[in-house]
Amino acid sequence: MKKLLVIFAILASFAVNAQNFQLHRDLDRNQFTSTFEMFKMDKWGNTFTFVDFDYDAENGINQGYFEIARVFKTEKMPFGIHIEYNGGVGNAETPIGDFGYTINNAWILGLNYAKGGAKSGFSTYAGYKAIKNADEANFQITGTWYVNFLEGKMTFSGFADLWTENGLSDDTVFLTEPQIWYNVSKNLSLGSEIEISNNFAGDDFKVRPTLAVKWNF
User: Fold this and answer.
1) pLDDT (tens digit per residue) in 106-159
2) CA–CA dist 124, 134 (Å, integer)
3) What are phi and psi of 3, to 5 degrees?
4) Is the Cα torsion angle 13, 52, 148, 72 positive or negative in sign?
5) Are 90 and 98 in contact (CB under 8 A)?
């Protein structure tokens, strides 16, 4: 509970500058997930951060997950220096009772390359991933993208991750979450996300669609 309160405090500290708020109805897990995202550029690079909360009908929030990434880059640098932190906490129900768990803290250090404009863009990085309690060295490769079409009325965006948790082994994880949005107005978007994963959170190959609404600040 204390760690959840810490995540709430972090959320409160950046919500004022959040780029968007999303609410998803997960049709496979039969739960809601809310997401706050922020992306901010400056003369030294950019900062991206988000917080996810999963909601259980009986107990309210049952998981909180947080990421923050900083890219250091000037106009003269062909690549940016990528530094990222991931972590979270949750609660799970079992036949013998509930138990709390921690999503292992992870730090990523690597190189980033990005290019984009008003209509489309992408960003990709590869780096060393230091996971708490991991016995082996690990890595992560990530790509993100966005495409605005039909004069900005539609947006296709998302990310794809590939990372290891125990060196080069069968524990390699793949996760991608493409999103499609119909932009009703400057602020309001309606759409869907499809989570496609393999070896993620203890599951084999999974496809999990959502219905979603997004408010753009």
Assistant:
1) 999 999 999 998 899 999 999 999 999 888 899 999 999 999 999 999 999 999
2) 24
3) -70, -35
4) positive
5) no
Half-sphere exposure of 16 (CA within 13 A, CB side): 3
Give dist(CA 160, CA 114) in Å, integer.
15
Q: What is the CA radius of gyration of the chain?
A: 18
Bridge partner residues of 24 (DSSP): 33, 212
Q: Model pTM?
A: 0.87
Contacts by 33-42 with C-beta closer than 8 Å and gap 24+? 33/210, 36/11, 38/14
CATH number at 2-216: 2.40.160.40
Q: Torsion angle of alpha carbons 134, 169, 164, 142, nearest 10°? A: 170
In the 3-class helix/strand/coil scheme, how is 170-190 assigned residue by residue? CCCEEEECCEEEEECCCCEEE
Tell me the one-letter amino acid at 17.
N
pLDDT digits (tens, 9 = 90+) for 87-121: 999 987 777 777 788 998 999 999 999 999 889 99
Question: Alpha-carbon distance 157 to 177, whole Å?
Answer: 9
